[in-house]
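@channel sequence for tomorrow's demo:
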Amino acid sequence: MNLENTQVQMRKGILEYCILHIISRGEVYASDMLEELTSAKIMVVEGTLYPLLTRLRKAGLVEYKWVESSSGPPRKYYTLTEEGQKFLDNLDSTWKGLVQSTKKIIAKKA
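C-alpha cells (generated this afternoon):
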C-alpha cells in the first residue's frame, strides 16, 4: 500500500469543505484560495480548484462577480450563497462528529 497515495486521498476528501470555509469569510479570489490551501499543506493546483469552483457554482453553493483590476484583467471573486452557507453548516456538524469519532477510536488502547 502506498502511504503517499493514502495521504493525498485524505486531503482530497476535505478539500471542498476547506474551500467553502475560505469563501465563507467573504469575497475571495481563486489565487488567494490556492495560497491559503498550500500554506495549510493542503496541496492543490489550479487544474483541481477551478473545476471544483465550477461544480460549487452550478450546485448553487457559491457565486462570483467580476472585479476590475488595476494590474491586469478583471478577477472573479467568489462568495457563498445562502444555500452554500446552509450546506457548510451541515458539513460543520458532520466534521465535528467525524473528529469526535476519530479521536475516540485513536485514543482507545489495546
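heads up for whoever presents: The first strand starts at residue 28 and ends at 29.
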